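Suppose a colleague, Dr. K., hands you the sequence of a protein chain of 255 amino acids and asks what its three-dimensional shape might be. Before reaching for any lab equipment, you can write down a predicted structure in token form. Begin with the sequence itself:
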Amino acid sequence: MIKAVLFDQDGVIIDTERDGHRVAFNMAFTEHGYDIEWDVELYHKLLQIGGGKERIRYYFENYYEGATPRNIDELIHNLHKTKTEAFLEILNTLPLRPGIKRFMKELNEAGILIGICTTSNEKVANTIANSRLAGIEFSVILAGDMVSKKKPDPEIYNTALKKINITPSECLVVEDSYIGISAAKAAGCHVLATYSDYTKDEDLSQADMIVNCLGDENGEKACFIKSELPLLIEGVITFKDLQLFLSDELKTINK
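The predicted structure, expressed as tokens, is then:
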């Protein structure tokens, strides 16, 4: 029985990568005097690196055509700080993914614990939870700067499970990327994948179920890519639907 649902943030709660984080990184480069622009294609490649600071370092080590900057650690820190400030300004212009707040409200009403586990930083995670998801009760919020290893390492999910005293078999994780799904599966959790524009072509096959989104009655509808199931409301995935899917009875039927 599922007792907790843990959500990745970027690409799951808000589709932040292309028009949010990428734009903010470019603003930070400009502010610090670097003629660098991460276009959509390059940023897609850089997303294979978990964590913003790690992404900046990887870029300077593998793509930057100039000399490696002195005091690279200090530069990365300053760039990322500026980028975070820029992103927080952009954040309120980005829409929530279809069905995400509805689904979280259902979980709260059902007494299911909710958490956020993101490679983004703590300030951004708390801002999203407190402003964009106001009214939702969270039992745990963990960010990339609160753990020693980033996804695909399972540390962030293992830590969350300990904090809320839940076993992996009692937890469903909602992720959108290969590295996120790998982290959740390594922790032993069930996984629902809701892919984003950047991750729709990644190998998400480890997930128990893959959909385009959770679906809204009056908006974008949920479409199944893997493990289709009957829905109580057409085009809308509810927690009751997922409980049924993950039950031993339905798993036996599907064999």
